[in-house]
Structure prediction request, 234 residues.
Amino acid sequence: MTSRGLANYRAIQAIYQVWRILELTKNIKRPASLEIGPGLGRTAFYCHQVGLTNLTTIDLPLGVVAQAFFLGNALGPDRIWLLGDDPEQAAGRIRLLPAGHLFGRFDLVINVDSLVEMPLKTAVDHLRLIAKYSRLFLSINHGFRGVPVEEIVKNVSPTSQARSKPYPMREGYTESCFVLAMPVKITPEFKIRYNFTRSVISIRYRCQKFLSHLFTKLTRLRWCESARPFNARV
Prediction:
């Protein structure tokens, strides 16, 4: 609880991510930032609150709808810009773009909790755009369901520079800052290894889910069997 109500862990993480953006762009006047997959838009909200207004986000269309609703209510409709709005009004507003409409250059790109869940081609396409249009890339992602971002970058852009450390806000996550280098391309060997790893993890996840469901069902049946004599006496 806070003096302004309940603060969930997503809001606290968003504040930490804004602090990292400020730290990485502290020597740049009016830094231009891009967030890929911003979720509801909490990080964008707190960026705006600390004066980082040169901000763009890209997401799937329904994600853009959710962000427009949240940020439009939290900051006001005059603080967001969508495709179809007057281009002259984009300055100073949070630009909410659907994937495929990226434009401009950025000092920093941030992605939290989504790049590793994309298909490999989509993830590499994003990395290729980042390498072309940005100076730095901040990744905060897990490696539970596939190949970590650090390994993807190492294989598709081996000359890139990276600094990685455990993400302090959530167990199992890694925080990495990259200076991506061109070219960014998928080798056949890495594609095979990537798909194999994803398949193994998917099979393991499905087996764990099936066994968990089976265990729950057996437990319920056992409980019903043990409760039957008592019900009969009643």
About this structure: The chain has one domain: 9-186. The domain at 9-186 is CATH 3.40.50.150 (Rossmann fold). The CA atoms of residues 4 and 153 lie 41 Å apart.
